[in-house]
TrEMBL record:
One of its GO terms (biological process) is peptidoglycan catabolic process. PANTHER family: PEPTIDOGLYCAN RECOGNITION PROTEIN, PEPTIDOGLYCAN-RECOGNITION PROTEIN LC-RELATED. It holds the Pfam family Amidase_2. Residues 1-27 form the signal peptide. This is Peptidoglycan-recognition protein 1-like. It comes from Ceratina calcarata. The gene is LOC108628605.
Length: 377
């Protein structure tokens, strides 16, 4: 499905553009024989996809808006039913609020390949999707990654495509466009398939795979004994991998109990301020927040001030973690680099490379030597 958009989602995009009474620039072939311009799309309300409350809202300066900016999600996650699409929209909102520190999900609307439109910031509010256009545009994001089918600008401008006799490819310029059909300039900026038709006007917004991070409050963490120090070097240039050298866990309930036991041991027996690791990963596929991003750890003394310490629950002397734990760990590292919490050109180390220890276990240590960023120092 990568790079190929179903007719249902194209129908929704076109119907939505028609609903906005705007022309649309398309750089992909269409075969939507029975579309009608006057169909109101099925819009799933924020309440129905279980949106969080926005931190704040700002009304658009220009209404009706003269621009529509179309994005793709930028990650290979697709959905063909309302439940799955709603979950992905919630992921977008969590990423934008928690990691980008935006007021809300950035887009005005999100469209899934189930053919539904999901209400984001909606009609009347400033978005956070296209700098320079947020105050005067509607931002529409299509769920999925369509970067492998990218029609060059020349093709978009030369090929005339008709859909139901109503929509044609129209030539627009990044600097000036004129329309004989409308009283004022209306340009649909299309960024389907990661094609930036208008050069430097917009940036591509890739959303990384965000692992499921269980917050401290959700796993029942104790408060630190005192305020945690910030990292001396941030973003940190090192990631240090550990194992817990204990029994593993494959359910959230057991993994949470393990993490609480690690914190108790570190605070009560080691007399540390808090659990030593920045994050702990279980074989249930979840990531458990320890000290978290930006904080000085207590997991590898020479590197505590300049690394993210990740502990995988289990004893990996003679076997590897399961696929769920491996994927969660790798996703966490990739996610950290994307959001600026780990240096992009980071160095990956096993604990045994930083101290006289058998951690992270012979088998796991051999495995991480095949991962991106690993160095023998």
């Amino acid at each position: 499905m990568l790079g190929i958009m179903k007719c249902s989602v194209l129908a929704t995009v076109i119907t939505f553009a028609s609903f906005l009474s705007m022309e649309i620039v398309l750089g992909i072939p269409l075969d939507c024989a029975n579309l009608k311009n006057d169909v109101v799309p099925n819009i799933i309300s924020r309440q129905n996809w279980h949106a969080r409350q926005p931190v704040e809202r700002e009304l658009l300066e220009v209404t009706p808006t003269p621009y529509v900016v179309i994005h793709h999600g930028g990650e290979p996650k697709y959905c063909y039913d309302e439940k799955t699409c709603s979950a992905i929209v919630r992921q977008y909102q969590n990423f934008h609020i928690d990691d980008r520190h935006w007021f809300d999900i950035g887009y005005s609307f999100v469209i899934g390949e189930d053919g539904n439109v999901y209400e984001g910031r909606g009609w009347d509010y400033v978005g956070a999707h296209a700098p320079g256009y947020n105050t005067q545009s509607i931002g529409i994001c299509i769920i999925g990654d369509f970067s492998s089918k990218c029609f060059i600008v020349q093709s978009i401008l030369k090929v005339r495509i008709e859909c139901c006799g109503s929509y044609n490819v129209t030539k627009h310029s990044s600097s000036s466009s004129q329309s004989t059909m409308m009283e004022k300039l209306i340009t649909v900026l299309l960024m389907l398939a990661s094609c930036q038709v208008f050069g430097d006007v917009l940036e591509d917004h890739n959303i990384p795979v965000r692992p499921n991070i269980i917050s401290r409050s959700n796993w029942g963490a104790r408060a630190p004994k005192s305020q945690l120090q910030n990292l001396a070097v941030n973003p940190p240039p090192y990631v240090v991998i550990h194992h817990s050298a204990t029994d593993g866990c494959t359910t959230q309930a057991i993994c949470q109990a393990r993490v609480r036991s690690f914190q108790n041991y570190h605070m009560d027996e080691k007399n540390w301020t808090d659990i030593g690791y920045n994050f702990v990963v279980g074989e249930d596929g979840n990531v458990y927040e320890g000290r978290g991003w930006d904080k000085h750890g207590a997991h590898s003394k020479p590197y505590n001030s300049k690394s993210i310490g990740i502990c995988i629950i289990g004893n990996f002397v003679d076997h590897n973690p399961n696929t769920a734990a491996i994927n969660a760990t790798q996703d966490l590292i990739a996610y950290g680099t994307t959001i600026g919490k780990i240096k992009e050109q980071y160095t990956l180390l096993g604990h045994s490379q930083t101290a006289a220890t058998s951690c992270p276990g012979k088998s796991l240590y051999k495995l991480i030597q095949t991962w991106p960023g690993w160095s023998s120092i």
